[in-house]
Design goal:
The complex is a heterodimer of chains A (177) and B (542). Chain A has one domain (40-172): Immunoglobulin-like (Sandwich). Helices cover 25% and strands 35% of the residues of chain A. Chain A has helices spanning 6-18, 121-132, 154-173; strands spanning 40-41, 43-49, 52-59, 62-68, 73-79, 90-97, 100-107, 113-118, 134-139, 148-150. A 10-stranded mixed β-sheet of chain A has the order 1-10-9-6-7-8-5-4-3-2, with helices on one face. In chain A, a hairpin with an 8-residue loop joins strand 9 and strand 10. Chain B has 542 residues and is α/β, with parallel strands linked by helices. Chain B has 4 domains: 21-131, P-loop containing nucleotide triphosphate hydrolases (Rossmann fold); 137-278, no CATH class; 327-416; 443-537, Immunoglobulins (Immunoglobulin-like), CATH 2.60.40. Classes of the chains: A alpha+beta (177), B alpha/beta (542). Chains A and B meet through strand 2, helix 2 and helix 3 of A and strand 6, strand 7 and strand 15 of B.
Chain lengths: 177, 542
């Protein structure tokens, strides 16, 4: 059996002593606030999928998904590539258009922001506001997604709103649904 | 188009669907035999039971670009070779030698259909025998409802006793059911009754029995003629089927059968008149109820079509619109006064049978009432909507609105109520001297028409595929509707396709569905609709 030369052992020990200790795991910190991102303008698309009315405003840097139904609830989801939204954080969704309003929401582990909206008169009014056009901003720690400009959804959006209205009509006619 | 009485069982009253199980079972058996590589099937059943239409369905189910299918309505075929799939109706009329040669041919799949006596002629040959049974009693009400909807007849409620009487008198034979249904409606109408009662059915059955001396019921009629009788020329069955052109014929209740016979014959003439008068009727199609649907404005006025075959089962997609489903969107200037005016307009439009979206408030209203359509095919529908929008809107001129942003769905029409103060008018597309051509309709490729998909597909989604040669990107508006969801059409998907040539659709539960693609040209502001196709997700519910 070959013996390891003592000089080689010493050299290895010396090299090991020169290594720096491993870096501590990075702490989850909010990204430093940079200059505010410029607003970007999205484009609407609409659909009816089963008992849900779906709408989407897309831009490569941020997208808004609106899903109304089933029942008298709607969800507003915002996604953005990269780390423009934090993990498991809180945020405020602020819209300014025909009228202004705010919603509180949370992001999940996949950095998707979500807020819910009851489809009562006020909630329906807010959906109409979105369809009428304006600017949607997310505010909160770690949020760097740019404001999203929603164009007037036009006749397509007003047609789609009929789908939303039917949800509430159906629910009123048959609350057990 | 695949057809079959089991494939549409939508009750006009919105009752639960009740498919025609016997037809489904026979169809499944034939397809199973084909899948198993069996060479010969004998399809037997009494006259009028629906063998012909089952063969038509099988033909469409088995035909592919790579597989030829030949369906013969009789034995008149003298070509030297036969295709891989041969379907022969009225095979009991064939010369015995020819029948035998087709029954034993190599390398193909053959279905020979005929009266039950056909089985005796081929008893010595290995084959699978499929007996097509009658519509079962529990399926009769749904069959009647579907039949009336298929023929686009005005609703005529049947008493429960009437349905039972029909079931008893017809014995579940579709042809007899169709005849007796028409006769019963006529008798009821002749008496001025707005409901069909059991006695009307019995009167019609007695009348028919007296006229044609045929056994009325499948179960009670073991006598099987050698060939299927042709419908008598004196009273085409289609006339009887469609006879509820219920003019108040002055026939006394007990005035004798001759009076009723005269009324039946008169009804045939009335039916022809009605059919001609009915074709150019309002082309507006709404999403309110399938019964209210008609051809789209763009569709050419259909010519008077021949009467359906006597025992033709209703097509699953019958009653679905060939054009876009028109929906009117009403906008109004924000405020209580505008909302009230919008509510009036919506009520007037709905009363006229149009589908109307919830009125939508806008900040900047138009200076004058404005009615916009966005595809040229919808102009006629817009004109008709204008005539029904209520007073005060006479100044509105239908015009082709500009497509800005997301394209609306075909059939969208917008009625903009004006602001008293008057606002800016929205731009319209300049008139053009020549109308650009419409895009070519899409060709639906999958799932195949009439396909039965496994129930698991409800969970993983169904990919609808089509070909739309030369279409613009983002061209294609996909519609999928549930067929057996009750009275109103239930859209399960309606959106522009996210990808070219296909769309994944999540459908939550088994049932029958129809789908199609409307190919849109933004540049031309025109669209064309593919024909509807249907599929069954999971087995038809018993």
């Amino acid at each position: 059996m070959n013996r390891i030369p003592p000089l080689l052992v010493l050299a290895a020990l010396g090299l090991g002593a020169c290594q720096t200790p491993p870096a501590p795991p990075p702490r989850a910190t909010a990204r430093p606030a940079g200059p505010p991102a410029s607003p970007v303008q999205g484009a609407w698309s609409f659909g009816i999928v089963g008992d849900r009315c779906t709408a989407r405003v897309t831009h490569r840097d941020v997208a808004l998904d609106v899903t109304a139904g089933p029942g008298r609830r709607a969800s507003l989801g915002v996604t953005a590539p990269g780390q423009a939204l934090p993990v498991n954080g809180r945020f405020t969704m602020a819209f300014q258009g025909g009228s202004g309003w705010q919603l509180a929401g949370r992001t999940d582990a996949q950095r998707k922001a979500a807020a819910t909206l009851a489809l009562d008169d006020a909630g329906q009014g807010r959906l109409r506001d979105l369809l009428g056009g304006g600017t949607l901003r997310l505010r909160g720690a770690g949020v760097s997604a740019p404001p999203l400009i929603l164009p007037d959804a036009g006749v397509s959006g007003r047609d789609w709103y009929g789908c939303v209205a039917r949800l509430t009509e159906n629910e009123a006619a048959d609350p057990a649904r | 188009m695949t057809v079959g009485p089991d494939l549409i069982s939508k009750s006009a009253s919105g009752a639960a669907p009740v498919p025609h199980d016997a037809w489904t079972e026979a169809r499944r058996e034939i397809l199973d035999a084909f899948a198993a590589g069996e060479p010969l099937v004998l399809l037997t059943g009494p006259a009028g039971i629906g063998k012909t239409w089952l063969l038509v369905d099988i033909e469409h189910s088995l035909r592919t670009p790579d597989r030829a299918v030949l369906r013969l309505e009789s034995g008149d075929y003298d070509a030297p070779s036969l295709p891989p799939v041969l379907l022969v109706d009225e095979a009991d009329r064939l010369e015995p030698a020819l029948l035998l040669s087709w029954a034993v041919r190599d390398g193909g799949f053959t279905v020979l259909a005929g009266l039950p006596a056909l089985a005796e002629a081929l008893a010595d040959l290995p084959h699978r025998r499929v007996e097509l049974g009658p519509v079962r009693d529990q399926d009769i009400p749904a069959y009647i409802a579907a039949r009336m909807q298929e023929l686009k007849l005005p609703p005529k409620p049947l008493d429960a006793g009437a349905a039972e009487a029909l079931a008893e008198a017809a014995g579940g034979v579709p042809r007899l059911l169709n005849l007796l249904l028409g006769g019963s409606l006529l008798v009821a109408g002749a008496e001025g009754s707005d409901r069909v009662q059991a006695e009307h059915v019995r009167e019609a059955a007695a009348l028919r029995s007296g006229m044609f001396e045929e056994p009325p019921a499948y179960a009670a009629a073991p006598v099987e003629p050698e060939v299927e009788p042709e419908p008598p020329a004196a009273m085409p069955e289609a006339s009887a089927e469609q006879s509820p052109v219920l003019a108040p014929v002055a026939v006394k209740r007990h005035g004798g059968r001759w009076a009723l016979l005269a009324a039946l014959l008169a009804a045939g003439g009335l039916l022809a008149w009605w059919a001609v008068q009915d074709q150019p009727r309002p082309p507006i199609v709404t999403e309110v109820a399938p019964a209210a649907m008609a051809s789209a404005p763009a569709a050419p006025p259909p010519e008077a079509t021949p009467a359906p075959l006597p025992d033709a089962p209703p097509s699953p997609t019958a009653g679905l619109p060939s054009g876009a489903m028109v929906r009117v969107i009403v906008t109004y200037p924000r405020g209580a006064a505008g909302a009230a005016r919008a509510a009036e307009a919506v009520a007037a439009l709905e009363q006229a049978g149009l589908a109307v979206s919830a009125p939508f408030p806008v900040t900047q209203a138009a200076a004058v009432p404005r009615l916009s359509y966005f595809f040229r095919e919808d102009r006629e529908a817009a004109l008709q909507a204008l005539g029904k929008a209520g007073p005060g809107l006479e100044r509105a001129v239908p015009r082709l609105g500009l497509l800005e942003g997301a394209a609306p769905r075909p059939g969208a029409i917008e009625l903009a109520l004006p602001d008293a103060a008057g606002g800016p008018d929205a731009p319209a597309r300049a008139e053009e001297t020549t109308e650009p051509p419409a895009p070519a309709p899409a060709v639906l490729t999958a799932p195949a028409d009439g396909a039965v998909l496994p129930a698991e597909a409800a969970q993983r989604g169904i990919t609808l595929s089509w070909q739309s040669a030369g279409a613009e990107p983002g061209c294609c508006f996909v519609e999928a509707v549930r067929l057996d969801g009750g009275g109103a059409l239930r859209p399960v998907f309606a959106a522009y396709a996210a990808a070219a040539g296909q769309q994944l659709v999540q459908i939550g539960r088994p049932g029958r569905y129809a789908w199609r693609v409307l190919t849109v040209s933004r540049a031309a502001q025109r669209y064309s609709a593919s024909p509807w196709q249907h599929f069954v997700l999971g087995e038809a519910q018993p």
